[in-house]
Design goal:
Number of helices: 13
Distance between the termini: 45 Å
Oligomer: single chain
Helix content: over 70%
Shape: flat
Largest sheet: none
Strand content: under 5%
Length: 278
Amino acid sequence: MDKVTNLEIGAWERPIGPIRAQWEKQWVRKLMTILVLAFGWELYARALDSELLVPTFLSTIEVFFRDISNGRIISSTGETLKVLLLGYGAGALVALMLTVLAMVSRIGSDFLETLTSMFNPLPAIALLPLAMMWFGLGIGSMVFVLVHAVVWAIALNTQAGFSAVSNTLKMVGRNYGLTGIRFIALILIPAALPSILSGLRTAWAFAWRTLIAAELIFGVSSGSGGLGWYIFEQKNSLDISAVFAGLLAVILIGLIVEEGVFRVLEKVTIGKWGMYSV
């Protein structure tokens, strides 16, 4: 009997080299993308040769670390994150209550659909003038607009996730005698977790953009604030490198939250459970 080789019985798999092995890692590809963008920024800024329009990447990094060392960016970031956590947490809580109400009664479902149709298209930042009249020049105004930015994205995705749960899984829960809040907590939420996390991620992006924009306006009125006010203040001083340093801080925080919070949360929950391929 002739000897059968691996090539004859299946596809031959070539070993990959160390460079290709590193390139297969997602974080390496993302890091290379960032480096290419930074290099392109540096080349364009040097070709333009106007610090008042586009400072170089290296000068922006220099100012970024300067204002980190003197505490300006750190204190501004702390103020921004404090307001963000308040508004995001309050919005998520309101969205959860609205979604639970929609799942336990038909009136609640109609109520949520009507509110979503009315207020979801309304930009959150457009409510800031009213918020400043109602809540004054304080954190309350920004928390109000953040709640509006957060609640609809979370509520829509959560309700969609709950509605997509299979009838078989729902019947299993009911056979175990689960009803009301226990049914939602033990059956619907775990099954709808991919949609819920998608809503939380979308709401985070909405909240982060809204807050920075609100701080640009609110900072002008109150003379203080977080990263938005820092950016506005540096623009008035014509320190454009510091303006870009503030924008860089906004981008870095977005990357940290995306990769360090949501991505990790997905891996340890829905990725680990095999609910989708991560």
